[in-house]
Predict the structure.
Amino acid sequence: MRFVHTADWQLGMTRRVLGARPPKEAAGGLTGEAQARFAQARLDAVSALGRLADERGAAFVLVCGDVFESNLVGPDVVARACEALASFRTPVLLLPGNHDPADAACVLRRPDLARRCPPHVTVLDTPGVHEVAPGVEVVAAPWRSKHPLTDLVGEQLAALEPAPPGTLRVLAGHGELDVLDPDDDEPARIRRDGVLAALADGRVHYVALGDRHSTWADDRDDRIRHAGTPEVTDFDEVDPGNVLVVDLEEHAAQVAVEPVGRWRFVRHDARLDTDDDLDALDAWLAGRPDKERVAVRLALVGTLSLRQRSRLDDLLAGHDHAFAAVEVLAQHSDLATVPDDADLHDLDLHGFAADAASELFAAAGEADDEARDALRLLHRLVGSER
């Protein structure tokens, strides 16, 4: 039996992708235009996985939680999601997760979704065993609130008897396994020992999980899987942008990792002390393909003169608009600006302006950050006038 395992579509995502500052126009984060392209990319990934399921002859597509970014997404997001789902020929099963739990406000139960949702889409908002095809059962462990006080997957496994002969059974859950989340104070963590026991005694034959945005397989039993998000959402994700095509038998599963996402979030560390270092950073940024779908986070260390720092500012500003975003990660950067005699000479100022610049240089030499910032600005202004 073949099916597609996916999760964490998070349609309608509006949170900032880079950093924690307000949305940027000049620095930090995706611009409004890039945000719109990023939102469309998530829908495009859904459509791509639907085509993949149809082409591979999957029995169903199982979405293990967080179909939507929240239960408060607008009707436009719901409408576009339903349009994407309508293009599928394969049945689709939607499990509520921590972003869209099956509470009183659940978007998966909203009238606007019910009106538009195609008939081949089923919401697994009721816990327990669901027969989805002859000889195939899905055991649903939906989130019923934002803060469950128990292991929802463990609850369902504890209530199961071994699957009837000839029946394949898939557990659909959402959340972190305890081996991935060491927080002992989190009551909703999924206990791996219980999952392993259920696989061993035949209560279930595959454990499909969501919540972790990185594609992952358990090293003790690779029938325990996180599909990851089909389109990248952050820099700390490992191998995102995939769905899993699962060929399931009673005692084994063959799993193919299939890429569907097109965006990339890239972190780059660079040491900048010389003009050659700046040339290398410029060349690295220039060499990135598909810049409109790439967000870059830079961690920079080193020591630059005012002239070099001004060049760096111009370099980053020049690349910024080609990329979805370019951001310098302040908390992981240790880049010092130390004026030298050549910086003062390059300004070629006279009279009062020269005296003011000399005073700023003296203060900057005593590690006055405001003086260094003023000199950087002066250096850029003089350079632009020339």
